[in-house]
Each structure stands twice: as structure tokens, then as C-alpha cells.
Amino acid sequence: MVSNSGHADPRPRLFCVATLLLCVFPIAAATPAGMVEIPGGEFQRGRTFAWPDYDVKWYPNPAKDDLPVRAITVNTIYMDESEVTNSRFAAFVKATGHRTPYNWRAGQLPEGKEAYPVTDVSWDDATAFCAWEGKRLPTEAEWEHAARSGSPDEPKISAKEAVFNQVDGPRSVCSKTKSQVGLCDMIGNVWEWCSDWYGQHYYQDAPDHNPKGPETGQYRVLRGGSWFDVPPLFLTSSYRSWARQAERSPTIGFRCVSDARR
């Protein structure tokens, strides 16, 4: 382009340079609504404290499936800020015709419980819901990494931080203080399905990068404890539990994750 003075106008060239910079340095994808970015990296997976049971002579084989402590590396993911609620699951049911949780009388979402975590859903129900939203269940390693982010793994939990030791069910999601990375109810409220098959010795056998659990198994992994549990045993970021894939329980729910877009 030539200006009125007969000299080349530099503006088109600057525009091209700016365009090139955009190509070289693309704008990072925004975190999806309702999710939290969990930066990837290395973390120490496994229980970092001893249970008193270790010193009890009549109980010679306490559970040690959360040992040894090992450095594990996972990728960056987006994780649902909260456990999946009844209202979100109801939208899934309406759109797909999927079965409802068995505690929904006549297949209807319980009135006043829209913001409560959905429960009485099997691993298959949870997997189908996450896929419908374009997501998936977290691996056990991803879940523990997210739970540990900014939080110590100790059997010390207060009613300010988690819903536990209740007799009448969970509470609405995010009713307690969020974790330092912005997640709600990682500990307590409801147990959360993970994608992995459960393996008793998997912590010592797993690969160091993005472990996805054993190839087969009898049970699926559960993490985080629930409204029914009493500290300290179940309510830590390292405690591992499990249930049959078809199990539907008033203490079990889930949340979804997706791979970070870069």
C-alpha cells in the first residue's frame, strides 16, 4: 500500500507481524464454566502418616493399599468444581432417557434437592453422564492429585471443611469451604467414582506417568469419603475404597473431568 506522499505505508506490515505473533503464541483456551483447571505435574501419591492400627498386635495386617508413597506425574486437566448435582443429572435423563437414580420416586427429581449431589448412581451411570457432557471420570491418580492440591493429607478434618458424620444424607454442593484450588467437597459429602479398576497393590506397580489403573478387576475405585463417615479413617486425600461397578448407594456420587485444551 502507498500513502498520499508516495511512500510505502508501514501499517499493513505491522498488521502482518501482529497476525504472525498470534499464530506463534496462540491464546490459551479458557477454563470451561463450572470447572477448575488442575495444573499437571509431579506429586507424592500415597498416605504420608501412620495409622494407630500399626501398633496393635491383634491386628497384624492393616490396610496398606495406599502405600508406598511414590512420585507420580499427571497431565493438566479440568475438573468439575463440585460433585454432579441432581439438576444436572435430571437434564441428562431428560435428553437421553437414561434411567433415574432409584431414590427418585416415580422417576422425579426430589423437590428441594436440585443442588444436592446425585447419588444412587452406578459407575456406568456416572460414565454415561460424563460422556454426555463431553467429559469423563477422573483417574484415581488425577483425583488424588486434585485433592492434594494446596491441602495436606492428614486425618484432621472439621465441619467447616467437609460434610461428614451425618445420619440424614448429603448437603447441597459447595456448602463448605472450597479447597485452595477452588474445588468443593473433595472430602466428605459423597464418595466419588473414579475410572480405574481397583488393585490392592497398584500403588507399588503403577507407572510413574498418568497411571490409569489395572486393566481388569472386580471393583471400581471410590475416593473422598461421605456424609455418613466419621474421621479420621476415610476422610483423607489418600484413602482408597472400592465398590462393584453396578453398586448404587446413597453415599456414592461422582464428578467429571476433561483433558486440558492447549
- Taking all Cα atoms into account, the compactness measure Rg is 23 Å
User: Looking at CATH, which topology would you report?
Assistant: paralog of FGE (formylglycine-generating enzyme)
Helix content: 10-25%
Percentage beta strand: 5-15%
Description:
This protein has 262 residues and is α+β, with helices and mostly antiparallel strands. The protein has one domain (31-259): Alpha-Beta Complex (paralog of FGE (formylglycine-generating enzyme)), CATH 3.90.1580. 18% of the residues lie in helices and 15% in strands. It contains 5 helices and 9 strands. The strands form 3 sheets. The protein has a 4-stranded mixed sheet with strand order 7-6-5-8. Strands 1-4-9 form a 3-stranded antiparallel sheet. The protein has a two-stranded antiparallel sheet with strand order 2-3. The radius of gyration is 23 Å and the shape is globular. The two termini are 36 Å apart. Residues 1-25 have low confidence and may be disordered.
Gist?
With 262 residues, this protein is α+β, with helices and mostly antiparallel strands.
Question: Key features?
Answer:
15% strand; disordered N terminus; paralog of FGE (formylglycine-generating enzyme); four-stranded mixed sheet; 9 strands; alpha+beta; three-stranded antiparallel sheet; 262 residues
